[in-house]
Amino acid sequence: MRPADILRFARDAAAGYPLRTTLSVLAMAIGVAAVVLLTALGDGARRYVVGQFSSLGTNLVIVLPGRTGTGGFNPATAITSTPRDLTIADAQALLRAPAVRRVGPLAVGTSEISAGGRLREVMVAGANRDFFAIRNFELAQGEALPDDDWQRAAPVAVIGAKVQEELFGREPALGRLVRVGDRRLRVIGILRPTGQGLGMNTDELVVVPVALAQAMFNSNTLRILVEARSREAIPAASAQVLELLKQRHRGEEDVTVITQDAVLATFDKLLGALTLAVAGIAAISLAVAGILVMNVMLVAVTQRTGEIGLLKALGAPARTIRLAFLTEAAMLSASGALVGYGLGEAGAFALRQLFPVFPAYPPDWAVIAGLLTALSTGLLFGFLPARRAARLDPVQALMKH
Amino acid sequence: MALIELAGIERRFQLGDTTVKALAGIDLTIDAGEYVAVMGPSGSGKSTLLNLLGLLDRPDIGHYRLEGRDVTTLSADEQAKVRSTRIGFVFQSFHLVPRLTAAENIALPMMLAGIAPAERARRVATALKDFGLDQRADHKPDQLSGGQRQRVAIARATIMQPPLILADEPTGNLDRHTGEDVVNLLEALNARGVTLIIVTHDPGMGERARRRLVMEDGRLQSDSAGAPC
Question: Where are the domains of chain B?
Answer without folding.
Answer: 2-96+162-223
